[in-house]
Amino acid sequence: MTKTISPWLALIIVLTAPLLSVIDVFIINVAIPSIKAGVHASDAQVQLVIAAYLLGYAAFLITGGRSGDHYGRKRTFFWGMIGFTVFSCLCGISQTPNQLNLMRFLQGVSAAFMVPQAIAFIQVLFLDPHERSKAIGWFGITLGLASVIGQVLGGYFAGGHFFVPGWRLIFLVNLPIGVLSLIAAHFYLPETEKHTGTKMDMSGVAVLTLVLFCLIYPLIQGREAGWPWWSFALLILSVVIFVYFVYDQHHKKISGKAPLIDIALFKFHDLNIGLVAVLFHFMMHTSYLLLSAVFLQNGLGLSPMTSGLYFVAPGILFTISSVIASRLIPRYGTPILQLGIVIIVVTFALQIVYFKTGASVFMLFTLQALYGLGNGLVLPSLLNITLRSLPAQFAGAAAGIYSTVQQTSSALGICLIGGLFYYLIDHTKNVQLAFHYGLTAHIFCLVILSVLLLCLPKKVQGAATAHIAE
């Protein structure tokens, strides 16, 4: 039976969801070379280790959020955490690349059900605006800490010698945290009011999942297979199915049913531009984390543990600069984001010059840290920029769309920029050259992002929100 407890204790319990979900993004990057060797995966299959998780996450985020409304947020959080813990363990004992990627997809689906409940509980438990702002701040701090923990644990486990191959422990470590979270949730987390007036749009979920699969899978597997006819057929099919999805959602809306996505949201100018900005930023961000981790190990010969330590400073500076940006953006607006973009572009340009065999530890460490500093000025504030012009009644639905685009963009970054990176490695056998071309693609994404921000009003009304999952 659930006891009456402090909302802060309930917050600690539900924050285990974003903690684990973000750790499982970052912990993979440093361990990718070890995972590839451990399950004898190809480059395309190892890309799917990241992309499959993001695909499952993106496809079910909106459904996960609405499930909390329909079935109760405690129940949805509980079953999402059970699924995440179980599928994490199954990832850890997988014997083949296909087994691992299927479990990663289901792990992402589970994350899509448990993580939205954390944000929902903040809205329910903290009614005072000041207290709610503090709770959201702890959400953001959790994400920053998770990024650091993920990189360090990934390097430690992948580079260590244990009773099982170290890379398997990066998945199995979720078991004790998940079990403790489930026990605490069962006894202490309160249930919330259920809203059962409308039915879930399960057909919309199925169609959206199919769209994302037909888009992501051929972009990854098609490159390695030499771009056979089926890869182009699936890409064309993804467009056809997406057009049908838009029609279906519009038809359900005018028929009085509850669609998965309210098409009326896309009538807002700032939202459309903001979502395209999100697309290019997260394509850059997620693929950079992968490329730099592989380059540090395969290009510079660093151990997984040492490679992981190079990501500690970016995580810390990201957290600090995101807090600073949340205070400056209401006063100065989008120029703060533009400053962050300039810092990242300069950082990438210097990495092209200095990230090479024989580079000094100081230079490697400093330039990695500068990326975190610049990214903290950009990434957390994109949500505020994107959603600021929307009426309050659209906020929840728009946040779900934002998160879906964010995760889909991350998967596309792994496919497109990561695909370019691995293609060049295959054909030139030069990891450093491939990394430099990847950085050039990242700079291109940032230039487009900067132009898009110029199309938005300079000033942002209200406080910036700093709780974006990386």
A few lines on this structure:
With 470 residues, the chain is mainly α. It has helices at residues 7-14, 16-38, 43-71, 73-92, 97-125, 129-159, 166-172, 174-188, 202-224, 229-254, 269-299, 304-309, 312-332, 335-354, 361-378, 382-387, 395-428, 431-454.
Topology:
Blueprint: H1 7-14, H2 16-38, H3 43-71, H4 73-92, H5 97-125, H6 129-159, H7 166-172, H8 174-188, H9 202-224, H10 229-254, H11 269-299, H12 304-309, H13 312-332, H14 335-354, H15 361-378, H16 382-387, H17 395-428, H18 431-454
Task: Tell me what you see in this structure.
79% of the residues lie in helices and 0% in strands. The protein is mainly α and 470 residues long. The chain folds into three domains: 1-190, Up-down Bundle (Growth Hormone, Chain: A), CATH 1.20.1250.20; 202-259; 263-470, MFS general substrate transporter like domains (Growth Hormone, Chain: A), CATH 1.20.1250.20. The longest helix is centred in the C-terminal third of the chain and has 34 residues, at 395-428. The relative contact order is 0.14.
The top level CATH class name of the largest domain:
Mainly Alpha
Radius of gyration, in Å, reads 21 Å
Q: According to CATH, what is the topology of the largest domain? A: Growth Hormone, Chain: A
- Share in β-strands: under 5%
Features:
mainly alpha; Growth Hormone, Chain: A; 3 domains; 0% strand; globular
